[in-house]
């Protein structure tokens, strides 16, 4: 009897061990997905010079990744529910590796932009499938809280690490290295996952909602395209208005279709789960605050404080370090006060850090003016990413885990696009007014960026209030209508 008990305990320990190793493999893939949205920024001047790309074309190196990523996330999540989370994850990772290698080998702008688009589409397959696998592997509330803590920390660190790694790699190995760095990591993931995660025993094979898929994907792409172009053509240009109008029509049609579809791409009943609704609203606002923060902070350090790319990247270490430390603390905080209060408190801390940062002068000292806000923002971001992700997937059935995961990623990406568009427009208007009033360029830029930081703080505060208002309880049920 004792030997049998020992055997059961040993088998259980092996299972737990492999689950945590599986989490590491999945988190590595997610890290690269988040990283690739920011790591290219510092490499843009170098690759633009070598490939003879104009300034306007360079912006499409970012947009070509964001458009398919944001537009296909919801479809990617539902495909993983229909055909298997592990299968779609492996397909997405394989496509991401091939596209990364192709981007690093690019000899023309068309080649590079095509590779970036495939990268984004592949990321839209692997990201929701990866998070769905995490929620299936960790069903125990305590273990799931730890796993999602690591997951949220990885997402936050990936955003902060992009600037750091982009500067180091571009400076030492050239612009192509920011793409090639993905290949060996992805190869490791491709080898490890089949051994660590078993195939799904049964996957329900039902017809996909083709009309819903077409309208929501095209609608999200049109919305992201409209918002991404506002910094170049403005909010009232024909391009922005036409794309925005198209997005409204398509997304409205999507809701109409989903109410009547027998097998909807997105069962609207999922939003009866207030945790899903509140979590996605929070991730939308976190995306807006984070994207605006890292954009403005990077430009402020390089154009106002005159840091080189490497130094600007290294200054992100305190923020990233805070994220790593908080990842180990948040699960205990969630257990003590609940996910809802943890998320609201984290967003409040993020807002305080952003407001503190907005007072930084044009001759700021990193130790005096930037270090404190960076640490506080790291704590707030780490807590918000972790608890926001956990809230958004709470109470979702296994066969809708991909849908819930796709929603989380979609909310963050669309929030980032809207936040960046709004905040950069506000900053540009502020800078132009200050320059027109005879203010020196450094002071004018500082004034504009301070408004970006304050706007990002407003997003965080709205998110904190919204979570407390929307999420009253955490229901746990399957939504099938």
From TrEMBL:
Name the source's superkingdom: Bacteria
UniProt subcellular location: Cell membrane
Q: Where does it mainly reside? A: membrane
Matching InterPro entries: EmrB-like, MFS, MFS_dom, MFS_trans_sf
Outline the extent of the Major facilitator superfamily (MFS) profile domain.
22-475
Give UniProt keywords alphabetically.
Cell membrane, Membrane, Transmembrane, Transmembrane helix, Transport
PROSITE patterns per the UniProt record, alphabetical: MFS (PS50850)
Q: How does it sit in the membrane?
A: Multi-pass membrane protein
- Stretches of the chain forming a coiled coil according to its record: none
Spans through the membrane: 20-46, 58-76, 88-111, 117-138, 150-169, 175-196, 208-228, 240-257, 278-301, 313-334, 341-359, 371-393, 414-431, 451-471
What name appears for this protein in its UniProt entry?
A: Multidrug resistance protein Stp
Question: What organism is listed for this UniProt entry?
Answer: Paenibacillus allorhizoplanae
């Amino acid at each position: 009897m004792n030997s049998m008990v020992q055997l059961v305990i040993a088998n259980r320990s092996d299972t737990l061990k492999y689950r945590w190793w599986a989490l590491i493999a999945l988190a590595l893939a997610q890290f690269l997905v988040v990283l690739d949205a920011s790591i290219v920024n510092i490499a843009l001047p170098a690759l633009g010079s070598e490939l003879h790309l104009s300034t306007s074309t360079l912006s499409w190196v970012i947009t070509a990744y964001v458009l398919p990523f944001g537009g296909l996330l919801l479809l990617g999540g539902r495909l993983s529910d229909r055909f298997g989370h592990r299968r779609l994850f492996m397909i997405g990772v394989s496509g991401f590796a091939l596209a990364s290698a192709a981007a690093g080998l690019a000899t023309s702008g068309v080649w590079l932009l095509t590779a970036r688009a495939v990268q984004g589409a592949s990321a839209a397959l692997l990201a929701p499938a990866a998070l769905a696998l995490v929620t299936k592997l960790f069903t125990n509330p305590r273990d799931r809280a730890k796993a999602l803590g690591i997951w949220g920390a990885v997402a936050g660190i990936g955003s902060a690490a992009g600037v750091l790694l982009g500067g180091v790699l571009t400076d030492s190995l050239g612009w192509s290295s920011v793409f090639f760095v993905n290949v060996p990591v992805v190869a490791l993931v491709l080898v490890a996952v089949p051994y660590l995660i078993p195939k799904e025993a049964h996957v329900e094979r039902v017809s996909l909602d083709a009309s819903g898929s077409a309208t929501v994907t095209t609608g999200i792409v049109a919305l992201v395209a409209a918002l991404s172009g506002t910094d170049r053509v403005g909010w009232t240009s024909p391009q922005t208005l036409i794309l925005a109008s198209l997005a409204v029509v398509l997304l409205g049609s999507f809701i109409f279709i989903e109410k009547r579809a027998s097998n909807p791409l997105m069962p609207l009943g999922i939003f009866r789960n207030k945790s899903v609704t509140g979590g996605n609203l929070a991730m939308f606002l976190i995306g807006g605050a984070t994207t605006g923060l890292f954009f403005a902070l990077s430009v402020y350090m390089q154009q106002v404080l005159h840091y080189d790319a490497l130094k600007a990247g290294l200054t992100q270490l305190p923020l990233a370090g805070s994220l790593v430390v908080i990842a180990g603390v948040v699960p205990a905080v969630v257990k003590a006060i609940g996910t809802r209060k943890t998320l609201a408190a984290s967003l409040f801390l993020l807002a305080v850090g952003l407001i503190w940062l907005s007072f930084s002068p044009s001759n700021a000292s990193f130790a005096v003016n930037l270090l404190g806000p960076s640490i506080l923002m790291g704590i707030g971001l780490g807590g918000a990413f972790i608890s926001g992700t956990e809230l958004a997937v709470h109470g979702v059935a296994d066969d809708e885990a991909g849908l819930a995961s796709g929603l989380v990623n979609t909310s963050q990406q669309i929030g980032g696009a809207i936040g960046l568009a709004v905040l950069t427009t506000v900053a540009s208007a502020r800078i132009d007014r200050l320059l027109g009033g005879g203010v020196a360029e450094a002071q004018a830029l500082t004034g504009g960026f301070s408004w970006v930081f304050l706007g990002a703080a407003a997003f965080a505060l709205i998110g904190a209030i919204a979570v407390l208002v929307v999420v009253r309880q955490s229901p746990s049920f399957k939504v099938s209508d």
